[in-house]
């Protein structure tokens, strides 16, 4: 996973600093050396590392820290704030045109995943209540237009194309089409090249002038490390980009590009790709990323992920069943399916505060455990799922054989299910009492 080594190093250092009663200047120097080494190993640009360490050291040696009762905690706070500042920008949010439609031009080199990310951005904006139109502006790459049409179909967003005529003309006519059909966002998928050339930049600048582009978003592959930073520098110099979309932030690269790119280009990371599904695009929040790097959790992203994943109607049905205590294995199966959509359990737990990488390494995550549970439940008859109490020894034997598990596995699941129901019953009772108390004290709520 990206940032894992950096996260391990920084979390260990922060833990040591917190445990110290007082800090000497030599302690600060040692901490700065550790931070410098951790960032360089994570492939962060050396100029960015030098400036970052200088700022942290100046603040850490200040009187407020050295005379503090908890100097270690203060240094942790400084590192946290400076890491956030490193990636923050006042133009982090996507701009919208005061006069619709907002025009977004997607740019980048071939192979960065620009066309796919264009579709992901369209879906992201559609979920925000926008009505996007995708524009096929890449007339050079074989099957680029067809690929965008496939992506558009996946996210249920219309695609405007005119074949292989001038990309500038395509952009102009797409704008007319958007106004006619009340599309409030136009996203242009432009041509990429294997390397940056003057012809490409000239074409992109011509499109910008012709249709008054609101946002010029550069798509870069975070797995390419400092090469991604160099590409961003070149595009910014020639095109004056307004933001960056970084792909593969769920991968196993060292993360240096994400920590360097804003400082080098002075342009914000606006979106991050965190998976292969079309839904796996997130608005970039520097504070949340830093919180995860330092082992402080990311509850807000977890809540947003859950809201996108869970079916609201099913959640209400579940609440009703818990109140009526009619929760059965059918409901349990639905819950498992929705939990799997959240992603790997290990990644979910990492978003919880106080869970660091060291603690996670001591836990044994068996990805096949959920599959075994699903297999056992699916081997039950409808009657058995509705009323687990009827499952006797002969039924257990049949279920175990049908699911490729053991009778012990079936017994274990039945026991866990009953314990879960008891716990839910208690929680439901507590919730009822709290609501009653609230009504007594606050009659207007």
Any descriptors?
alpha/beta, 9% strand, flat
List the helices and strands and how they pair.
Layout: H1 4-19, H2 25-41, H3 46-60, H4 63-66, H5 71-87, E1 102-107, H6 114-127, E2 132-137, H7 144-155, E3 159-160, H8 167-180, E4 185-190, H9 198-211, E5 215-221, H10 226-239, E6 243-247, H11 256-265, E7 269-273, E8 281-283, H12 286-293, H13 299-309, H14 312-324, H15 329-341, H16 345-350, H17 357-361, H18 368-378, H19 382-386, H20 393-403, H21 407-441
Parallel strand pairs: 1-4, 1-5, 2-3, 2-4, 5-6, 6-7
Antiparallel strand pairs: 7-8
Helix pairs in contact: 1-2, 1-5, 2-3, 3-5, 5-12, 6-7, 8-9, 10-11, 18-20, 20-21
Please write the string of helix (H) and strand (E) elements. Answer: HHHHHEHEHEHEHEHEHEEHHHHHHHHHH
Helix content: 55-70%
Q: Summarize model confidence as the mean pLDDT.
A: 82
End-to-end C-alpha gap: 45 Å
**Strand elements, count:** 8
Beta-strand residue fraction: 5-15%
Would you give an account of this structure?
The chain is an alpha/beta fold and 445 residues long. 60% of the residues lie in helices and 9% in strands. The radius of gyration is 27 Å and the shape is flat.
Brief write-up:
This protein has 445 residues and is α/β, with parallel strands linked by helices.
């Amino acid at each position: 996973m990206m940032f894992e080594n950096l996260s391990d190093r920084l979390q260990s250092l922060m833990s040591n600093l917190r445990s110290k009663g007082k800090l000497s200047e030599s302690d600060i120097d040692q901490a700065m050396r550790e931070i410098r080494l951790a960032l360089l190993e994570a492939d962060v640009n050396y100029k960015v590392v030098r400036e970052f360490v200088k700022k942290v050291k100046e603040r850490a040696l200040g009187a407020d820290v050295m005379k503090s009762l908890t100097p270690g905690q203060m240094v942790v706070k400084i590192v946290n704030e400076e890491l956030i500042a490193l990636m923050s920008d006042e133009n982090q949010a996507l701009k919208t045109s005061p006069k619709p439609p907002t025009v977004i031009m997607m740019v980048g080199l071939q192979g960065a995943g620009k066309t796919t990310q264009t579709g992901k951005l369209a879906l992201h904006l559609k979920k925000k209540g926008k009505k996007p139109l995708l524009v096929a502006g890449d007339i050079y790459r074989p099957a680029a237009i067809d690929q965008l049409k496939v992506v558009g179909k996946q996210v249920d967003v219309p695609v405007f194309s005119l074949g292989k005529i001038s990309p500038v003309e395509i952009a102009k006519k797409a704008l007319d089409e958007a106004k006619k059909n009340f599309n409030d966002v136009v996203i242009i998928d432009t041509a990429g090249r294997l390397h940056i050339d003057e012809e490409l930049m000239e074409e992109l600048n011509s499109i910008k002038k012709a249709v008054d582009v609101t946002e010029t978003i550069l798509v870069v592959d975070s797995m390419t490390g400092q090469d991604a930073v160099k590409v961003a520098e070149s595009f910014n110099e020639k095109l004056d980009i307004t933001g960056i979309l970084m792909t593969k932030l769920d991968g196993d690269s060292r993360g240096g590009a994400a920590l360097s790119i804003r400082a080098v280009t002075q342009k914000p990371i606006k979106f991050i790709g965190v998976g292969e599904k079309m839904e796996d695009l997130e608005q970039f929040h520097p504070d949340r990323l830093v919180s995860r790097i330092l082992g402080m959790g990311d509850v807000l992203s977890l809540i947003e992920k859950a809201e996108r994943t869970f079916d609201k109607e099913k959640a209400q049905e579940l609440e009703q069943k818990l109140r009526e205590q009619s929760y059965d294995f059918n409901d349990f199966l639905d819950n498992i399916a929705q939990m799997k959509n959240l992603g790997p359990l290990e990644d979910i737990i990492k978003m919880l505060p106080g869970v660091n990488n060291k603690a996670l390494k001591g836990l044994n995550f068996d990805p096949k455990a959920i599959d075994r549970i699903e297999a056992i439940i699916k081997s039950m008859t409808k009657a058995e799922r509705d009323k687990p109490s009827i499952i006797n020894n002969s039924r257990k034997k049949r279920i175990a054989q049908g699911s490729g598990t053991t009778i012990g596995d079936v017994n274990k699941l039945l026991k866990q299910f009953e314990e879960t129901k008891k716990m839910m019953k208690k929680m439901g009772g507590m919730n009822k009492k709290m609501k009653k108390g609230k009504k007594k004290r606050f009659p207007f709520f």
